[in-house]
Design a protein that fits this description.
Layout lengths: L14 H10 L11 H6 L19 H10 L4 E10 L9 H11 L7 H4 L6 E10 L3 E8 L2 E8 L2 E6 L4 E6 H4 L11 H9 L6 E11 L2 E10 L6 E9 L5 E8 L7 E9 L17 E4 L19 H8 L2 E3 L6 E5 L9 H14 L1 E5 L2 E7 L4 E5 L3 E5 L3 H11 L1
Parallel strand pairs: 6-12
Antiparallel strand pairs: 1-2, 1-11, 2-3, 3-4, 4-5, 5-6, 7-8, 8-9, 9-10, 10-11, 13-14, 14-18, 15-16, 16-17, 17-18
Helix pairs in contact: 1-3
């Protein structure tokens, strides 16, 4: 089916409409601090798998955005497939080693802030369920094991079957006001993507698709600016409910999408109440989290989780530029750039080999690149990061200096 007549929705939808829709929507939120800049920048996903283009009434881009904003889905369950291809080097299972190392250091392998960092690479299958804003469940299916995160009223439980470990906190502890929480489901990804809709963005309706057996419209979001690494974003929107079903983020460099998160099966019926029941298994090691976010006295403090210090830095970040070519910058307070020589040993040499040495008015530094995010760490301890090309990043550092 040919794409529908496009509507260049550049700011046509009022912020209050979007926010009211977000407030009403039941959102499955995963409290996880994902490694590095990718967590702060990524919100999206590979090409939609079409199984016949349904014949749906015509709709403009503005109407479709409003349909997403007004979506009031309170109950759902289904299976989500998440594939991430940032082009990161193969670190030989370093992510799992870091998680198990944190557990040995007094943390818990069931703590979602460390466990779910596994989603930053590879392909994963999740089972999700929601019954209003106070009851959600996510299960990460692994080979011979399963990790579950359950929110039931004031309780938040994490359970790692392989280690038989349990993490327990409260909704107040684990709420988004206390943690860095990147998107987890298509609805969350949509909200993040729509925040980027301004006069630097082209938004059109690009035909229809079938996703998880549901008829859907395809919303196409493309940057108008040069200098960004983002090529296009596609959001498949359920034609009946307005619920986003799948996302596609394609980098400007082409090839496979950077991130794919979409339902392969979905139901909008009310999940059984037992879905959200959880009782720690006999013999499980339980780690409690105090209201201030610290572990109980039965366990020593955990080592800083991947992304913790970075998230704090972003909290005081300055944004340079506008729209898709905006760059976040902050000062780490550490002079000398990357550790090297006797100070950095093999780690410093390894990190340096992953980046490109650059120089300019800002001084000297190293640029680390993925297929989406570039980050510049200068020798005087400043960090510049964004979904922009290396040249755009260096230019921002020169002008920021």
């Amino acid at each position: 089916m040919a794409p529908y007549e496009s509507d260049d929705a550049t700011g046509a939808v009022q912020d209050e409409d979007l926010h009211s829709g977000r407030r009403k929507a039941a959102r499955y939120v995963v409290p996880v601090a994902v490694v590095g800049v990718a967590a702060a920048t990524i919100g999206l996903v590979p090409a939609l798998a079409n199984s016949g283009d349904p014949d749906l009434p015509k709709i403009t881009a503005q109407q479709l955005i409003e349909k997403i904003a007004k979506s009031d889905v309170q109950q759902l369950s289904g299976t989500v497939k998440v594939s991430t291809d940032l082009g990161l080097p193969d670190l030989g299972g370093l992510e799992s080693s870091l998680a198990s190392g944190a557990a040995r250091g007094g943390g818990s392998s069931a703590d979602p802030t460390s466990k779910l960092t596994e989603l930053v690479s590879g392909t994963h299958t999740l089972r999700v369920a929601a019954d209003g804003p106070d009851r959600q469940k996510l299960s990460l299916l692994e080979s011979g094991a399963e990790y579950s995160l359950i929110h039931d009223g004031k309780d938040v439980w994490g359970y790692e079957s392989k280690s038989n470990e349990v993490f327990h906190g409260t909704a107040a502890d684990s709420g988004r006001e206390h943690r860095a929480e990147p998107p987890a489901t298509p609805k969350d990804f949509a909200d993040e993507a729509l925040k980027s809709v301004d006069d630097t963005t082209s938004v059109t309706v690009d035909g229809t698709a079938q996703v998880a057996g549901r008829d859907a419209y395809k919303l196409l979001i493309k940057p108008k600016q040069s200098g960004t690494t983002v090529g296009a974003i596609t959001i498949a929107v359920d034609a009946k409910t307005g619920q986003p079903l799948k996302f596609t983020l394609t980098p400007k460099s082409g090839g496979a999408a950077v991130l794919d998160a979409g339902f392969t099966q979905v139901s909008f019926a009310k999940p059984a109440a037992s879905t959200f029941d959880f009782t720690p298994p006999k013999g499980a090691k339980i780690t409690e989290e105090k209201p201030d976010g610290k572990k109980g006295t039965e366990a020593p403090e955990h080592a800083p989780k991947p992304g913790e210090d970075f998230a704090k830095g972003l909290g005081g970040a300055t944004v340079l530029g506008k729209g898709w070519t905006s760059v976040a910058t902050f000062d780490t307070g550490t002079k000398g750039g990357l550790p090297s020589g006797s100070r950095g040993g093999d780690l410093g040499g390894f990190l340096g080999s992953l980046g490109d040495q650059v120089s300019g008015k800002f001084g000297k530094g190293t640029v680390f690149s993925t297929r989406l995010v570039n980050a510049l760490i200068t020798d005087d301890g400043k960090v510049y990061a964004g979904a922009v090309t290396k040249d755009t990043l260096v230019k921002a550092a020169n002008e920021g200096k």
